[in-house]
Amino acid sequence: MKILTKLLSGAALTLSMTLAAPLAAEDCPRGDLDKRFCDVDGDLVADTPTDPADQLDPDTLIFAYTPVEDPAVYKAAWSDFLTHLEAETGKKVVFFPVQNNAAQIEAMRSGRLHIAGFNTGSNPLAVNCAGFNPFTIMASKDGNFGYEMEIITYPGSGIEKVEDIKGKQLAFTSPTSNSGFKAPSAILKGDFDLLPERDFEPVYSGKHDNSILGVANKDYLAASIANSVKSRMISRDVIKEDDVVTIYKSQTFPTTGFGTVYNLKPELKEKIRSAFFNFEWEGTTLQAEFEKSNEGQFLEMTYQEFWDVIRKIDAANGVSYACE
Asked: Which residues are CB-neighbours of 270 under 8 A, at least 6 positions away?
């Protein structure tokens, strides 16, 4: 998938070209990673540059959360965690409200984003194109994690099963979303022989909450969404549970992956990592928001293992991780 370089300023483009000096090809295995990165240890994510001159130690750290719902809601939700992150790193931390997945990926690729939570479907592109190093996801207090893709409609829509979508409309969120596009595309094709344009009209809402609200308000006949987002919207009384009907529920997928850009100084990376794992959730703004989807801790994970099923879905859809 091509990322629109027009999202970058000229200065950012210059910076992205100078972030890392690659080693000689024979010393720099990289797999699917962009040519700017190396993966000597084979863990599928970009290595920290070995030359200290190529490592970043910014005075201000920029944090962004995946653009799934109203950014103002999540700026407040993350406020206590970001205060904790400032104390752990000794740095100022700024919340950067991103409007779409492409802009978030380009911000990290250009050196303007240091810490982020990328949605499930964007993780592989962020890893391979932007040098994202994910290491944790949210989980429940008992260690369960993940969400399911659901295809939803509204009562009385005339759609009672997946096959009824044929000849009608289905709302996706964006092409980089796992539950909002990639997973349903693979499942509809493989299990139901349904293809966009040929069998149904695809439309794009931009975000999961737009799709969910669109179905609840009968603007969309059906939509593919992440049920974790739906749960939080029901908990906040944005929609009522009986406003929508689920006609398909997938296997469990990993949720948002959190991590840093690859070229932060190792000592700073470790402080950030520790801040996630020693954060006390009880009584915080983060708990108030994310307990609505039964999340209460940061769980350690590896991209290589946890995103294996997502990479397989991408392969089935013919998704490319090329940056340009």
From this structure: none
| Tokens coding 72 | 């103002």
Question: For the chain, how big is the Rg over CA atoms in Å?
Answer: 20
DSSP element (H, E) containing 311: helix 308-317
Distance from chain centroid for Cα 269:
20
Structure tokens that stand for 36 in this block = 């700017």
With tokens 């910014």, the residue in question is 58
Contact criterion met (CB below 8 Å) for 184 and 151: yes
pLDDT digits (tens, 9 = 90+) for 23-67: 445 589 999 999 999 999 999 999 999 999 999 999 999 999 988
pLDDT, tens digit (0-9, with 9 covering 90-100), for 74-90: 899 999 999 999 999 99
- Residue 292: predicted pLDDT: 87
CB-facing half-sphere around the CA of 172: CA atoms within 13 A: 23
Beta strands in 96-228 (DSSP E): 115-118, 132-139, 147-153, 169-172, 201-204, 222-226
Angle, helices 79-89 vs 266-277, to 10°: value is: 140
CA distance 153 to 161: 10
For residue 131, give every residue at least 6 positions away whose Cβ sits within 8 Å of its Cβ, in sequence order, or none: 19, 20, 34, 36, 37, 46, 108, 109, 261, 262, 263
Looking at the whole model, is its pTM more than 0.85? no
By the 8 A CB rule, do 61 and 91 touch?
yes
The model's pLDDT over 262-306, given as tens digits with 9 standing for 90+, comes to 999 999 999 999 999 999 999 999 999 999 889 999 999 999 999
The position carrying tokens 């080693």 is 23
CA distance 106 to 4: 8
Antiparallel, parallel or unpaired: β 245-253 and 132-139: unpaired
Amino acid code (one letter) for 149: M
CB 145 within 8 A of CB 236: no
SS3 (DSSP) at 120: coil
